[in-house]
User: What shape does this take?
Amino acid sequence: AVVSTQSTGEDLVAKLGKSSGQTRKDVQSDDVIRAIGKLAVLGDGFKVVKAGKQSLIQSVPGELTMDHTTALDVANKSGGRLTVANLEMMGWPELRINKTMDSLMDQGMVWVDEVDSSYWVPALFHS
Assistant: This one.
């Protein structure tokens, strides 16, 4: 089971190991990415989304636009955190930013931090 709407391949390999009670050295992140890619022929559900060099696995049906992908890429470059200022620096008007972020929140892909008006992508948290 996938806990969030997005996880990395590494996250899923770790969850697989925990669920089986052993470390799985025979399953790599690339194996998970390929398997998810093959599931795409079955329709909506799991799919691989690129955010820069990071591959995210989307486990909830939904369409990602180029704006969504760009916002996720920006968040990936900053440890999973995204601010309106990040998107404004790219020349995005307020309406475009709000529409993109509202859609990502509706899909459960980002969380809003009301304290500092930023957004977080749980699948991109860096430790």
Summary: The mean pLDDT is 78. Strands lie at 6-8, 47-51, 54-58, 81-83, 111-113, 118-120.
